[in-house]
Amino acid sequence: MGFPSPAQDYVERRMSAEAYCQIDNNSLVIETSSGYAVINRALRCQQRSTVLIQFHGHSQFAKLLGQAFITDDGDAIEGEALDEVNVIGVVTFFIHRTREDDCPVM
Length: 106
Hints:
about 110 residues; mainly beta; seven-stranded antiparallel sheet; 7 strands
C-alpha cells in the first residue's frame, strides 16, 4: 500500500496531434491545398464559424454570416440556394505545412 509518489505530478505526457486538436470519433481530418483541416461533425454551426459544406456536388469551406454562407472565393450562398447546402461539420483546426518540398533533409 502506501501513498502515490509526488513525482507523478511532474511527469509530462507526450504531445500528439490527436491530443492537441481534440481529434475523436466525431472528427474528420481532410487534406487541403495548404495542409490539413480538422472538422468536428458533432459541433453546432454558430455565427462566424468556418464550416465544410457540400454544394452542387463540391466540397468547400464557408463562413456562416447572418443568413448566408460566404465561400472562400467570396460568393454568398443565401435564400433558396441554402436548401441545396449540406453542412458536413465545423472546422476546429487548420494545420498548415511549413515546407513545400518533399525533401526531409535541409
